[in-house]
Amino acid sequence: MQGLPAMQGDCGGVWMYTMKIPVERIAVLIGKNGQMKEYIEKKLKVKIEVDDEGEVTLEGESVDEFFGKDVIKAIGRGFEPSVALRLLDDNYLLRIVDLRDYVNRESMARVKGRIIGEKGKTREIIEQDAECFLSVYGHTVGVIATLETMEIALSAIFKLIEGLNHSTVYAYLEKNRRHLKGERMKKQ
After folding, report:
1. Residue-wise pLDDT tens digits, 165-178
2. 115-146 pLDDT, tens per residue?
3. Is 93 helix (H, G, I), strand (E, B) or coil?
4. Which of 101, 167, 174, 187 sits at a 20 to 30 Å CA gap from 24?
5. What is the pTM for the complete model shown?
6. Helix (H) or strand (E) holding 149
7. CA distance 135 to 14
8. Are 153 and 145 in contact (CB under 8 A)?
9. What domains can be seen in the chain, in order of their start residue?
10. How distant, in Å, are the alpha carbons of 62, 63, 86, 111, 115 from that of 66?
């Protein structure tokens, strides 16, 4: 994502939030014939403006734009709208890991490849075992998960960034998946 999101204050009962998304993600946010943008506006009771350079402004009179900003940020970071809309559920969170904070430019492609894995295998295993959704896009890795599983997903990603063997990361994920399953069975 280019630039940092900016929060404007209360403008006479109306809140505004401005952020930038990649230009190539504008069409995904707007959707065919504007249907996705319209759906998000109705669902959140906000007005969304998008310019040709990817600047997105949410405006509304309630706290719904707080949730809307994460939906739009997720779409901007490569998630499909159907996945990003899960963020409207209080149980789901969005975390963005900026790989530039952890690796140099020369290592970026290698690290992204480690997270995705051959034919997407590693990404699939993380998504399945940590019950999350991943998007590796540009210089970021986006994670949409529940509070219960977010830490597991992030930990697996950071282990891969640090260079741990895939087998070690898979064992970590499997151990945590079994632990989660056991905890859930105890609650029943």
Report:
1. 999 999 999 999 99
2. 999 999 999 999 999 999 999 999 999 999 99
3. strand
4. 101
5. 0.87
6. helix 147-162
7. 32
8. yes
9. 6-88 (3.30.1370.10), 92-187 (3.30.1370.10)
10. 9, 6, 14, 32, 29
